[in-house]
Amino acid sequence: MLHEGQQRILARAQRWNAVACGRRFGKTTLGLALAAAGAPHAPGGLLAGYDVGWFAPTYKLLDDAFRAARVFLRAYERRVDSQQKRLELVTGSALDFWTLEDTDAGRGRRYGLVIVDEAAMARNLQAIWEQAIRPTLADYQGGAWFFSTPKGRNYFHALYARHGIIPGWCAHHAPTSANPYIPATEIEEARRTLPERVFLQEYEAAFLDDGGGVFRHVLAAVDEDLLGDPSLAVDATDGRGFVIGVDWGRHNDFTVFTVVDARRRAVVAVDRFTDIEYGIQLGRLKALHSRFRLAPILAESNAMGEPLIEQLRRDGLPVRAFQTTAVSKAAAVEALALAFERREIRIPKIPALVDELLAFDQERLPSGAIRYRAPEGQHDDCVMSLAIAWHGLTWGAPIAAAAPRETVFE
Ligand SMILES: Nc1ncnc2c1ncn2[C@@H]1O[C@H](COP(=O)(O)OP(=O)(O)OP(=O)(O)O)[C@@H](O)[C@H]1O
Ligand SMILES: [Mg+2]
After folding, report:
1. Distance CA 201, CA 11 (A)
2. 185-239 pLDDT, tens digit each
3. Per-position DSSP letters for 1-57, written without gaps between them
4. Three-point CA angle 232, 233, 238, nearest 5°
5. How far apart are CA 34 and CA 6, in angstroms?
6. How far is the C-alpha of 265 from the C-alpha of 112, rounded, in Å?
7. Does the beta carbon of 6 sit less than 6 angstroms from any atom of ligand 1?
8. Whose CA is nearest to atom 30 of ligand 1?
9. Tell me, what's the pLDDT at 351?
């Protein structure tokens, strides 16, 4: 039984369909239902005796769909080739699975219907569609369905934009909330805790402009007076109310210390340098800490971080460990992005910091998880140092939704 959101899509179908949906809307489920039962404006699906081709960008996604299909079609299964990823049914038809990386995908096959799942994640979607997939539909005048959560304005968007321009093409759009099986509270939770742009893309299925980045209103958060403010002459005074975030440098990387003022919710000092000789790193951190004497330090503990933290403790500094994992990094970055979105943070005019914040990006992994990172060839040490400091500032406070996931504190 298709849910209402899926039925609405079916009711408007054309021969060619680009379906932009939020995560968990039910794209794969709808794709399987179409593969079995066929689609409007296509000759038919598996149960009517037509072969169907299923395409996915990665082997992992393909394997998930293959297994879901086996469950879905178990009543009709005749022969299974797990190696070639082919399901033959008692109706005489077969469901073939291909990755979109495979330049031979679909060669020699004739399909009544083709399903492309997570189409926006395929790098070479245009080439494989035009050269490999489209010809498989010629014999039966088969139909094609491109399902995906959007990923900027790439080729999937171009297909989506054909609606109303090229006859036979239909664009469908549905947010995650159109799936009645996903509790509304889950979606609200995501809206509250994810950066707005991430939420818009992943849950509202919005096509965002490329290069939009993760942090918004960065320039509006810049306060030219922050570093020169005399009220910040805290040297040798009470450092309570400050947190120092530490991102240690690796190869070709900067070490960055960021001091945040809890009361004013502002970055008040940044030290960034490339000398990875550890004695020098520790010396500089101690110098900074002596300006903000009682400020707790939250330092990355990965790799060389561990022994450095040990040394700082022996020297009597109040340091805690922040273990960077995909999950703890995402939580810290998301909390920082929210602070910018809500204009709750101010930063000084430090070009490296501002540039990194503007460029910082996100990508969705085949697993569905979101990875945050600097664009290829750029740094993210200022961002991470700030995210760690901000995390230190707010731990136990409202980012609770993000913090406990897997952030490891000692
Ligand atoms: N018609 C339906 N009836 C019952 N449950 C459904 C239906 N459609 C989807 N679901 C359920 O909703 C959840 C998401 O479905 P599905 O995996 O098809 O979504 P998706 O959009 O492909 O998700 P993802 O973005 O993770 O790939 C699953 O638990 C699935 O069982
Ligand atoms: Mg899916």
Report:
1. 25
2. 999 999 998 888 889 999 999 998 755 578 988 989 999 888 765 445 444 345 5
3. ---HHHHHHHHT--SEEEEEE-TTSSHHHHHHHHHHH--TTSS--GGGT--EEEEES
4. 90
5. 11
6. 60
7. yes
8. 26
9. 87
Hey, how many other C-beta atoms are within 10 angstroms of the C-beta on 185? 8
The candidate with the shortest Cα–Cα distance to 285, out of 268, 267, 273, 301, is: 273
- Collapsing DSSP to helix, strand or coil, 269 comes out as strand
Torsion sign (Cα): 202, 33, 122, 158: negative
- Name the pLDDT band for 78 (thresholds 50, 70, 90): very high
Per residue in 284-316, pLDDT tens?
999 999 888 778 999 999 888 999 999 999 999
**Ligand 1 near 26 CB (within 6 A):** yes
Distance from Cα 184 to the centre of ligand 1, integer Å: 15
What range does the domain containing 15 cover?
4-202
Record the tokens describing residue 252, joined without a space.
């070709």
Determine the length of the chain: 410
Identify the residue whose C-alpha is closest to ligand 1 atom 15: 26
Do 159 and 282 lie in one domain? The reply is: no
Q: Are 393 and 338 in contact (CB under 8 A)?
A: no
Tokens of 55: 């395409």
Please give the Cα distance from 355 to 347 (Å, whole number). 12
- What is the predicted pLDDT for the residue at 395? 65
Comparing 48 with 394, the larger pLDDT belongs to 48
State which of 142, 175, 202 marks the end of a domain.
Answer: 202
Same domain for 134 and 25, yes or no, is yes
